[in-house]
């Protein structure tokens, strides 16, 4: 599909820069980041992609019945719960579209109905597909409204016959009236129930619930920049806050003395512990906790001026789009690591948090580099280096 003929352009809310050529998109993002941050320091040149298409490794569809019968896959119209029919999408992994098309056919032939949010009737809520860029592994997660999945083994067999490239099929149960796509329970219908992928030379297990950056190629560049900014010498104690499945900490562990990771999502922490093991990383530990609470407790027990206390040298922080918390930033001010590397997918909340971190001249922002993780959208990822 060419980028100019997306049938749901402007409605899906995904590609705001659909008709802009890629170098203009990069210029626009560079200018926006300059407006927000050039009061701090020079903004490095945005890191773009050579091929800005088909980068999304996570694909999501919702299902509904067209005119009461045919089941179709789509995505929600921006800001609504209207389903827009969507087959292929030029920013998504190309392997997903064919699987989605055949899933619709299989749902019909197995007489499975799409879930209706208003009536609560029907089984199939969502499908999520995750792909490993390097390993080629593919996970199909079928989210249903009820634990009863009729003929599930035959269904899995039929799907595998059509798409032997799939490496695992997971049945996920979401029986709550909620906006969340994924529910808590997973049952593997085929394969190991997760995929693995390689990032920066390390192997990572990714479970259905865990966060994983959606653009793997750019993530390697992003982490590369973050590690470069940290300038690790080998003996530092490093915090990986909001660590997800442990990616940044595990990549940094080769260059540091010790790494401590903290993450709220328990499934992600389980993945992180396992990821340390499969990469034979011994100098890392992970904690399931709120990052603000964890680091506040840590600061209360480890006075940086006490020589018997553990001293944190570098903090990597990679919070969700709504940014970090005052509690977290106050604790950073108690610990006063030499460097803070802030990775952000929300430049506005980054601007707010940088102001707080720099309060009282405690830190100076030394370097900022935008990374284009989301070509054709108006979103921009940024990494910032702060020093005492
Ligand atoms: N650094 C990881 C994950 C970044 S996404 C990576 O690059 O892949 C942000 C992560 O913060 C998510 O995994 C989310 O579950 C986690 N998170 C959200 N709120 C949190 C909180 N209050 N404390 C700790 N982790 C949190």
Order of helices and strands: HEEEHEEHEEEEHEHEHEHEHEHEE
Strand content: 15-25%
Number of helices: 9
The whole-angstrom Rg is: 22 Å
Question: Uncertain spans, ≥5 residues at pLDDT below 50?
Answer: none
| Apparent shape | globular
**Helical/strand content category:** alpha/beta
* Mean pLDDT score: 94
Helix coverage percent of residues?
A: 25-40%
Largest sheet: 7 strands, mixed
Query: What compounds are bound to the protein?
Result: S-adenosyl-L-homocysteine
For the secondary structure, the number of strands is 16
- How far apart are the first and last residues' alpha carbons, in Å? 49 Å
Oligomer: single chain
| Strands side by side in the biggest sheet | 3-2-1-4-5-6-7
Outline the fold blueprint.
Elements: H1 22-37, E1 58-65, E2 71-76, E3 83-85, H2 95-109, E4 124-131, E5 138-144, H3 152-162, E6 168-173, E7 185-190, E8 195-199, E9 202-206, H4 216-230, E10 237-241, H5 247-252, E11 258-263, H6 266-278, E12 284-288, H7 291-301, E13 314-317, H8 326-335, E14 339-344, H9 347-357, E15 364-371, E16 381-387
Parallel strand pairs: 5-6, 10-11, 10-13, 11-12, 13-14
Antiparallel strand pairs: 1-2, 1-4, 2-3, 4-5, 6-7, 8-9, 14-16, 15-16
Bound molecules: S-adenosyl-L-homocysteine.
S-adenosyl-L-homocysteine binds at residues 211-213, 242-244, 247-248, 262-265, 268, 290-291, 318-320.
Q: Would you kindly provide a written description of the structure presented here, covering whatever features stand out?
A:
By secondary structure, the chain is of the alpha/beta class. It contains nine helices and 16 strands. The protein has helices spanning 22-37, 95-109, 152-162, 216-230, 247-252, 266-278, 291-301, 326-335, 347-357; strands spanning 58-65, 71-76, 83-85, 124-131, 138-144, 168-173, 185-190, 195-199, 202-206, 237-241, 258-263, 284-288, 314-317, 339-344, 364-371, 381-387. Strand 8 (195-199) and strand 9 form a beta hairpin. The chain starts with 21 loop residues before the first helix and ends with a strand. The mean pLDDT is 94. It binds S-adenosyl-L-homocysteine (SAH). S-adenosyl-L-homocysteine (SAH) binds at residues 211-213, 242-244, 247-248, 262-265, 268, 290-291, 318-320.
């Amino acid at each position: 599909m060419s980028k100019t003929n997306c049938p749901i352009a402007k409605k899906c809310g995904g590609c705001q820069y659909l008709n802009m050529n890629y170098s203009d998109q990069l210029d626009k993002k560079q200018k926006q980041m300059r407006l927000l941050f050039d009061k701090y320091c020079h903004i490095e040149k945005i890191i773009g992609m050579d091929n800005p298409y088909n980068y999304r490794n996570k694909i999501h569809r919702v299902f509904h019945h067209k005119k009461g019968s045919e089941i179709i896959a789509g995505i929600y119209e921006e800001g609504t719960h209207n389903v827009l029919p969507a087959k292929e999408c030029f920013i998504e992994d190309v392997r997903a579209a064919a699987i989605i098309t055949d899933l619709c056919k299989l749902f019909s032939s197995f007489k499975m109905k799409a879930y209706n949010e208003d009536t609560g009737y029907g089984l199939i809520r969502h499908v999520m597909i995750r792909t490993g860029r390097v390993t080629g592994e593919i996970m199909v997660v079928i989210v249903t409204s009820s634990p009863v999945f009729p003929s599930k083994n035959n269904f899995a067999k039929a799907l595998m016959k059509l798409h032997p490239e799939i490496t695992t099929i997971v049945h996920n149960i979401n029986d709550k009236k909620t906006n969340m796509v994924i529910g808590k329970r997973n049952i593997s219908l085929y394969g190991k129930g997760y995929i693995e992928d390689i990032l920066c030379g390390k192997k990572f297990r990714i479970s259905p619930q865990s966060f994983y950056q959606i653009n793997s190629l750019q993530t390697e560049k992003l982490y590369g920049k973050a590690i470069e900014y940290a300038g690790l010498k080998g003996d530092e104690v490093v915090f990986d806050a909001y660590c997800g499945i442990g990616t940044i900490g595990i990549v940094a562990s080769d260059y540091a003395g010790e790494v401590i990771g903290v993450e709220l999502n328990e499934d992600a922490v389980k993945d992180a512990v396992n990821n340390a093991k499969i990469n034979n990383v011994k100098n890392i530990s992970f904690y399931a906790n709120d990052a603000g609470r964890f680091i506040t407790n840590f600061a209360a027990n480890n006075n940086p001026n006490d020589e018997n206390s553990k001293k944190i040298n570098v903090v990597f922080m990679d919070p969700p789009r709504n940014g970090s918390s005052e509690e977290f930033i106050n604790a950073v001010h108690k610990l006063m690591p030499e460097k803070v590397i802030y990775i952000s997918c929300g430049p506005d909340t980054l601007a707010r948090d940088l102001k707080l971190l720099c309060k009282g001249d405690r830190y100076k922002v030394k370097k900022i580099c935008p990374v284009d993780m989301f070509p054709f959208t108006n979103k921009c990822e940024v990494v910032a280096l702060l020093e005492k």
